[in-house]
Amino acid sequence: MSDVRTYTIEIDMHGTKYDIPVKEDCTLLEGIEEFGLEVLHSCRAGVCVTCAAKILAGEIDPGFASITDDLKEEGYVLTCSAYPRSDGIKLEMNHFDDAYDKQYGQFEN
Asked: Which of 33, 30, 28, 36 lies closest to 9, judged by CA?
């Protein structure tokens, strides 16, 4: 018998909401993919911000994500490195453009 807890997370992807079970030892990205949905991603190392989402409710463990504290405070999360840690997690997917601009934009001007 497994002691691994499963959380149900609600994601909003392109205006459609899904309730997805994610085990506490899986990243949000892994759980979403196991459910059968595609999430844009590139590095799976918490660096490129391609899989960025905004957390609207609930608690996560951000894992090894290399995003600024400002982005974390604004609710950004990298799904490739984040783990669920509470019930009631709500994510809004597909925030690459704004997360990228806030993370790296100042270096491109």
From this structure: 28
CA distances from 15 to 23, 95, 104 (A): 24, 13, 27
Please enumerate in sequence order all residues whose Cβ is within 8 A of that of 88, keeping only pairs 6 or more positions apart, or say none.
57, 58
CATH C-level class of 6-100: alpha beta
Q: What is the pTM of this model?
A: 0.89
Which residues does residue 78 pair with via DSSP β-bridges, in sequence order? 52
Q: What whole-number distance in Å separates Cα of residue 8 and Cα of residue 28?
A: 11
What are the pLDDT digits (tens) for 40-85?
787 877 778 889 999 999 999 998 888 888 998 999 999 999 999 9
**Residue 60 identity:** I
